[in-house]
Every structure is written in structure tokens, then in C-alpha cells.
Amino acid sequence: MKNICLVWMLVAAISTFAQSGTGDVIGTFVNFESQEPILGAKAIIKENGRVYLAISNEDGRFRIVGLPAGTYEVFGIYQKDSTEKVVVEVPVEAYGNAGTIYFQSKTQDTKAVRVGGGRYEKARIRIGETPVTTLSPKEIKYRPDKFSVADMVANTSSDVKKADDGQLMFRGARKGDMIYVLDGIKSNQVFNVPSCAIGRITVYTGGLPAKYGDTLGGAVILETKSYFDLYREWQINQPDL
Prior knowledge:
By secondary structure, the chain is an alpha+beta fold. It folds into two domains: about 1-15 and about 130-230, Ferric Hydroxamate Uptake Protein, Chain A, domain 1 (Beta Complex); about 20-115, Immunoglobulin-like. The protein contains four helices and 16 strands. It has helices at about 1-15, 135-140, 150-155, 225-235, and strands at about 20-30, 40-45, 50-55, 60-70, 70-80, 80, 85-90, 95-105, 115, 130-135, 160, 170, 180, 185, 200-205, 220-225. The strands form four sheets. Strands 2, 3, 5, 6 and 7 form a five-stranded antiparallel β-sheet that branches. A five-stranded mixed β-sheet has the order 10-15-16-13-14. The protein is globular.
């Protein structure tokens, strides 16, 4: 199993340069005391030495664009105040929603919080109104069905069924009427990938982006881990010196 994972990691490192899938992060800044939107607050993401920045508009809304698909921490700065970091997962060709982020003056007893299902809650992303489900490596790692991509897809959404012959059916479409994209390569068959090599699985059960083609079913977009994903994992697993 380790040898298989190693092979996939090498393939992922080589294919990183060919992958160009990006997404956005959206959110809203609001003053905690006045409940008014904040104009001109900075939304910031720092990742691997790069800084991604956006400025909120008169409605307090911001949009950080062009982020490689992955998991990020976004925070806000306005005058002398800053917010807590909010974890956001960015899918390919869609956006991660950081929700409403509240600024509260540092002179108060509590810091700025994010509200959206609970304070300081990890952002479980709702990708607009599009029926999309995303599985991260952390979620995949502990799934009992992680050894079968088709099983993971079928068990993730009630809109997807798996036929006896293993083919997937999306929202009543005929069997096999779907698109499977593995690192940018399209197919109508779902190929297995070792779970340790999967960087992300995105399942569209409707509202399919035009770039994936014309189908009455859905789409499964699978990305293998990139060099940077593998490097971060290696750093995390290193013992403290």
C-alpha cells in the first residue's frame, strides 16, 4: 500500500503544474456594536509566502479571487481592529463562503467573532445555490468507504445512486450519464485512486459548469494531492526538534 501511495504522490507532484483549478472566497464584514456593514476592511489570506487581499464594498462584502483549490484561513483588518481567522475550503470553479465576520473593538472584553451557525464554528462551505459536495483529505481519511471513489460519491449525496454493476446514477438520469474528471482528464467511467493520494473530490449533482460538458447527470471532479499538499503533510508529521 505504501508503494502505491508513493507512486501516486510522484504522479501528483508532476501533475501539479498542469492543474490550474482555482476558486474564490467570499464573505461579509459587519460592525458588532452597530450591526452596520464595514466599507474598506481588508480581507487577507496568507499561504506559502503569498498574500491574497480584497477590500470590502459599501455592503461589507468582499471576494478574494484566483485561489488554488484548497483550505485557507481568512481574517479581516480594519483600522486598528482585526478578526479571528476563519477556515474556508475553496473548491474548483466555485467559492468558499466565510459567512458574516464581525469586527468588535479591542477595548471590549471579547474579540471579533464569526457568526453563521455558531461562533468560532469551522466554516462548512455552502457553495452558493449550486448542489455541490466537497470531500477534503481529512474527511476521506476516516471514511469506511475510502477505498472506492464510486462508493464515496454515492454515500455523500442522496441525489446519487450506485447500480449493481458499479455505475453511478445522478438525480434520475440514466445509468452512467455523468462526467468524471481526474486531474483535468475527462472520462465517463469512475477510476479508483488510492485514498492517500486524493487531494479533493467535488461532486456536482446539478448546475454543472459549462466547462465540464453537456450531460443530464452530474460530475465527479477528483484532484490528486499537489507537491505543496504533500510538503505540508510532511512538515506536520515532523517531530519537534
